[in-house]
Amino acid sequence: MQIILDSHFADLDLFRESVDGWDLDFRLMQRGGFRGAVLQLAHPDILLGRARFRCGLAQRGATPAGFRTFGIPGQSCRFWSRGRQYGPDELLLYPSSNEIASVTSVDFDIYAVSLTETLIDELCETLGVRWVGETVEAVRPTRAQMSRLRRTAEQACCASSGSQRTRLAQSVAEQLVVCFSTAESPGRPRLRSRDRVVQRIVDHLHQGVGDIPNAAEMCRIACASERTLQYAIRERFGVSPNEFVRFWRLNDARRMLLDSESPGEAIAAVAERCGFRNPSVFAREFKLLHGELPSTTRARGYRSPVEP
Predict the structure, then answer these.
(1) Rounded Cα distance, 253 and 299, in Å
(2) Can you say whether residue 113 is alpha, beta or left, with left for phi > 0 and alpha for psi between -120 and 50 degrees?
(3) From the centroid of its chain, how far is CA 45?
């Protein structure tokens, strides 16, 4: 098992380009710029990695194709995934569609383990257990099982030789298959009105850039009262609805500034397209979120054009 990535990142775009096998679409949801560290190990049947992020993120994308991916949260890690809140006592299994739809905060620390379907079938047969991964997306192992999983995963990440890493990663795979075949499943939570509110706002923002809606407009889009909207957005993203929408548009602006297909578009024009009428306000808020001025981001876009 080889180490294919072991780096700290202060640039979200460099992080996305560097991570192997994952199709990532992350948006910053907290001021201060991106701060993260990633370790990736690779074997033909097992991918093992650890990701630690010290910033709020809205995560979308896909796990590695051809694998089923599990998440082992760190001891203090709490996050949302596909409308469900996870804590440090639960194991996550990403859907067979490989979809990522998560919201994470400054304490995000997770081991990600991807196994081929062939390996899962072989392990189930060898261990004499029945695979339930098509119907279960989370389980609560015993405290001893979780402790052993974290310990073995950490040992695999720290091992000095490829053979040691492979042996320990195989042990992690076996433990995961056993947990998802025998541990208690909390079941799929009922969709709440707050969850529908969040989804309506996110769906609206995904339709494209535009003006930043005021409170009344957001309530109309969400089909909710201002009180419900406040609770729903703050519970999921840790910020107010106004902050959430502004952060979302500032992420849109960053992508536009990095897009080499429109290098001649003025920064002020990008700001206005994303709902910021005052260029000075846009520059200040952009720097607070991304840690650099829009002009610096635009210059990087010139140097590193996006491939078609």
Answers:
(1) 14
(2) beta
(3) 23
The answer to whether the CB of 153 falls within 8 A of the CB of 167 is no
State pTM to two decimals: 0.90
Is residue 170 within 8 A of residue 116, CB to CB? The reply is no
Instruction: For helices 193-206 and 226-237, give the axis angle rounded to 10 degrees.
Output: 80
Q: Are strands 36-42 and 46-53 parallel, antiparallel or unpaired?
A: antiparallel
Residue 127, classed as helix, strand or coil, is: helix
Q: Write the CB contacts of 47 (distance below 8 Å, at least 6 apart in sequence).
A: 21, 40, 41, 64, 67, 69, 112, 113, 114
Q: What is the pLDDT of residues 39-70, one digit of tens each?
A: 999 999 999 999 999 999 999 999 999 999 99
How many CB atoms sit inside 10 A of residue 126's CB? 10
Same domain, 171 and 218: no
Determine, yes or no, domain membership for 187. no
- What does the alpha-carbon distance between residue 46 and residue 41 come to, in Å, rounded to a whole number? 8
**C-alpha–C-alpha distance, residues 267 and 283, integer Å:** 9
| pLDDT per residue as tens digits for the range 275-299 | 999 999 999 999 999 999 999 998 8
- Pair of tokens at residue 84: 């469900």
Residue 20 above 50 pLDDT? yes
Rounded to 5 degrees, φ, ψ at 227 are -65, -45
- Sign of the CA dihedral with 114 first, then 119, 121, and 127 last: negative
Query: Is there a contact between 77 and 108 (Cβ–Cβ < 8 Å)?
Result: yes
Residues β-bridged to residue 24: 61
Residue 202: Cβ-neighbour burial (10 angstroms; 0-12, 13-18, 19+): middle
Q: Which of 244, 258, 255, 247 is nearest to 282 (CA)?
A: 247
**How high is the pLDDT of residue 306?**
39
Specify the CATH number for the domain of residue 201. Answer: 1.10.10.60
Q: Is 228 contained in some domain?
A: yes
Do 100 and 203 share a domain, yes or no? no
